[in-house]
Design brief:
Layout: H1 10-22, H2 27-39, H3 46-69, H4 81-84
Length: 90
């Protein structure tokens, strides 16, 4: 499972806390359910399926190209999160 960080203003956070409490749940649970709802593809046409398959094939090709051309590349070599969001350099 992946983790997502979201930043909201104080008023939105306060209203989200109240809403979650009214539903006897948590803000992360609310967000999870919302994302599941908005990303549910539902019934798809053959054209949509073909377009999705094309995008997936292209993604696989890009990944394979990266593996072929940069065999030592590792995601763990990326900049650590703390450095990535260090605002002093902006």
């Amino acid at each position: 499972m992946k983790e997502i960080t979201v930043t909201v203003d104080d008023e939105t956070y306060y209203r989200a806390c109240l809403h979650a409490a009214e539903l006897n749940t948590t803000i992360p649970a609310l967000l999870y359910e919302h994302l599941r709802e908005v990303t549910d593809p539902g019934p798809r046409t053959p054209e949509q399926e073909a377009a999705t398959e094309l995008r997936m094939r292209k993604l696989r090709e890009v990944r394979e190209s990266i593996r072929r051309n940069s065999p030592n590349f590792r995601m763990s070599d990326n900049v650590p999160r703390d450095e990535l969001y260090d605002r002093r350099f902006i």
